[in-house]
Amino acid sequence: MFKSCSTIGIVALSGPCEKDEILNGINNLKSLGYNVVCSKNLFSEEKYLAGTDEEKIIELHSMFENDKIDLILNAVNAAERRINVKVCFFSFTAFCG
Q1: CA distances for 25 relative to 15, 19, 32, 34, 88, angstroms
Q2: What is the three-class DSSP state of 36?
Q3: Distance between CA 67 and CA 77 in Å, rounded?
Q4: What is the pLDDT of residue 65?
Q5: Residue 17: pLDDT above 60?
Q6: Which of 11, 13, 44, 95 could form a disulfide with 51 if both were Cys (CB 3.0 to 4.6 A apart)?
Q7: Three-state secondary structure string covering 78-92
């Protein structure tokens, strides 16, 4: 179980996010006592995607490598074929999405 002081990282691995919906969700998480860290590409738009594949991979890996993050939420449903599984597996950070 995550404590209210836990830190949640939010990434966007597929299409761009609806800014109002995401900000509302972030405010809800903060009101519950969670710390929130957003990926740099959360509101990026590269054609119909949330940034380039390289940007998304870098942001996801940086979340897994950040020792302060307890849970990573994917703001949209997506599968990314180029995710470095070793980075994710050895970080012991929970990931949802």
Answers
A1: 17, 10, 11, 11, 24
A2: strand
A3: 24
A4: 94
A5: yes
A6: 44
A7: CCCCCCCHHHHHCCC
- Token pair of 96, please? 């949802």
Q: pLDDT by residue (tens digit) across 48-82? A: 777 788 888 899 999 999 999 998 888 864 344 45
> 97: which 2 tokens?
């999405």
Quick one: tokens of 68?
């302060």
Rounded average pLDDT over 15-25: 79
Q: Residues with Cβ < 8 Å from 26, sequence gap 6 or more?
A: 10, 36, 38
The span from the first CA to the last CA of the chain, in angstroms, equals: 17
Residues 74 and 13 sit within 8 Å (Cβ to Cβ): yes
